[in-house]
Amino acid sequence: MDRRRRRRRRRPARPRAGGGDPAEEDRLSTPEQPRRRSGRRPGSPDTRDAVLTAARETFAERGFDGATIRSIATAAGVDPALVHHYFGSKDKLFLAAIHAPADPAELLPEVLAGGPDDLGRNVVRLLLRVWDGPMQPAALALVRSAVANEWTAKLLREFLVTQVLRRVVGTLDLPAPEREARGALVASQLIGLVMGRYVLKVDPIATATPEWLVAHIGPTVQRYLTGDVRPPSVD
User: How many angstroms separate the CA atoms of 84 and 86, rounded?
Assistant: First the structure.
């Protein structure tokens, strides 16, 4: 005699007060587990702003070389690791602090690629390309702020000297005082070009083509870099 398998009948769920699907109510009554987000947790905008404020004050007071990630972190009341997390390096932090229109580390390799004999023309050509491009509003705002504010002027000077000119003049095998003198002369020429073309708009500097400016100003910058220049203390 075959035994019949008895199937257990599933009792229907009791209707609950107020109606509704019991299974749906059970699902809704069970709290969902929060989803874990991959990667690092984004930091607070207020903390990031505090770091930038501390960086501007420290760079303006001590200069780029004198400022450290640790001193900036202490001024902002955060751990130095958090500064590295936000900005990566002191150079990147400095660029963010002054709202730099461009990162010289990304642009200067093409200036240096031609060797010492092409430095003057390449420096002027790069400056014009940056200023005549979409970065002009940010660069112009930085210069105008530096003209009106001594604090911003210190930051702009540090940017020009440590981030641009030091890397250009550093490719030349020269004593430190001579490198400093040459860098200052180049800075005076570049600042004059920026003021004449973009701020004061002196013609024909303001309306000249980049090629014309490279041809006439480039040799002067080249002479400052590789010509007969001696530090003022030697004269």
Answer: 5
* C-alpha distances out from residue 224 to 193, 217, 227, Å: 15, 11, 6
pLDDT of 39 above 50: no
Task: Provide the pLDDT confidence category of residue 11 given band limits of 50, 70 and 90.
Answer: low
Cα torsion angle, 95, 100, 106, 107, sign:
negative
Q: Residues 50, 77: contact at Cβ < 8 Å?
A: yes
Length of the chain equals 235
- Phi, then psi, of 26 in degrees rounded to 5: -65, -40
* 78's tokens: 């955060």
In 88-175, alpha helices (H): 90-97, 104-112, 119-131, 136-148, 150-158, 166-169
Q: CB–CB of 202/152 below 8 Å? A: no
Eight-class DSSP state of 102: S
């303006």: which residue's tokens? 60
What's the CA gap between 130 and 180, in Å, rounded?
Answer: 24
User: Is the alpha carbon torsion for 192, 204, 217, 112 positive or negative?
Assistant: positive
The rounded distance, in Å, linking the Cα atoms of 48 and 44 is 6
Q: How far is CA 35 from the centre of its chain?
A: 33
pLDDT of residue 43: 52
Task: Give yes or no for a contact between 73 and 85, defined as CB atoms under 8 angstroms apart.
Answer: no
Rounded distance between C-alpha atoms, residue 214 and residue 190, angstroms: 12
For residue 111, report the phi and psi dihedrals to the nearest 5 degrees.
-70, -40
